[in-house]
Amino acid sequence: MKWSEISILTTNEAVEPVSNILHEAGASGVVIEDPFELIKEREDQFGEIYQLNPADYPDEGVIVKAYLPVNSFLGETVDGIKEAISNLIRYNIDIGKNRVSISEVNEEEWATAWKKYYNPVKISEKFTIVPTWEDYTPVNSDELIIELDPGMAFGTGTHPTTVMCIQALERIVKPGDQVLDVGTGSGVLSIAAAKLGAAEVQALDLDEVAVNVAKINIKLNKTNEVVSVRQNNLLNEIDIKADIIVANILAEVIVRFVDAASANLRSGGTFIASGIIQPKKQEVIDSMIAAGFDITETLAMEDWVAIIATKK
Question: Which residues contact 294 (CB under 8 A, 6 or more apart)?
């Protein structure tokens, strides 16, 4: 089978929404080439070794790549992707040069491209993200493994927004907790909550493709007895009293359902919100306070922010 590689030169701020646009257009994954990775100081407390080739990264901006099957609809799909990315300007998202290029690759090259960028990464005190094709032996007896295949979803579990959510869950989840994961994507946050001892996790996503991907990942990680996945628009028609709500989505979306998050949390429950760029931080904080939350903590990683809030 022939595949078309679509490459978008954009900004770090636009990586998440551009990735989501590609996912919704039918891409089964993305590769992110961020030159910051070449100079980023990495804490060695997790014992990881990184070997990166500067030739794989742009001189400026960030390149987001995805792979689409070559078919009669490809031209229309690419035009739709270009239009959707250009429309991000309406949300005050800097899309940079927004240079789009297309090239054709065969299936073998496509598979190799994924594995080139994806290795086991320890992202917190307990969790290590491991690609399904890697043999990995836990270093510590309490280490928790999450297996993911980047060919199955656009997220690899190592983006700063995801890492901050998992680090927050690691500190907050208690055995027996009930958790809502809003906009679950690959299901990685639901898997983490289940492995931390949550009694019940509901994973919600509006995208049918994401729902199917999450189900596969959740079964792969043997957490399907705890985690249920279904298609749902944010928290519409959800009526429970959860202990924790976690949402790794855009700031513009978070502010739309903070009232629903409050309504679906027990008193003293925790709302973990990520996917927030620095300029949108205060807007999200203000909306949370207006909805009856106390801001417990803010986390920052690169240009991203995660907010932990408690329902009064």
Answer: 309, 310, 311, 312
pLDDT reported for residue 8: 94
Classified as helix, coil or strand, 265 is strand
41 pLDDT band, cuts 50/70/90, is low
CB 136 within 8 A of CB 145: yes
List helix spans (H) across the chain. 15-24, 36-39, 74-86, 107-116, 160-172, 188-195, 208-220, 251-254, 258-263, 281-290
Q: What is the largest CA-CA distance in the chain?
A: 55
In terms of DSSP bridges, do strands 265-277 and 293-301 run parallel, antiparallel, or are they unpaired? unpaired
Residue 281, CB-side half-sphere exposure with 13 Å CA sphere:
15
The answer to whether the CB of 167 falls within 8 A of the CB of 189 is: no
pLDDT in tens, 263-272: 999 999 999 9
Residue 91 and residue 87: Cα distance in Å, rounded? 8
Which pTM was predicted?
Answer: 0.68
Q: pLDDT of 166-203, one tens digit each?
A: 999 999 999 999 999 999 988 999 999 999 999 999 99
Q: Find the Cα–Cα–Cα–Cα dihedral 277, 212, 241, 145, rounded to 10°.
A: -70
Rounded Cα gap, residues 213 and 215, in angstroms = 5
If asked whether residues 229 and 307 sit together in one domain, one would say yes
Range 82-102 burial, b when 16+ CB lie within 10 A, else e:
eebbeebeeeebebbebeeee
Residues 273 and 181 reside in one and the same domain: yes
- Reference 240, options 199, 301, 189; nearest CA is 199
Q: Is residue 237 within 8 Å of 263, Cβ to Cβ?
A: no
Please tell me whether residues 108 and 45 are part of one structural domain.
Answer: yes
| CATH label of the domain that carries residue 248 | 3.40.50.150
Q: Strand 265-277 vs strand 242-248: parallel, antiparallel, or unpaired?
A: parallel
Domains of the chain: total? 2
CB 221 within 8 A of CB 146: yes
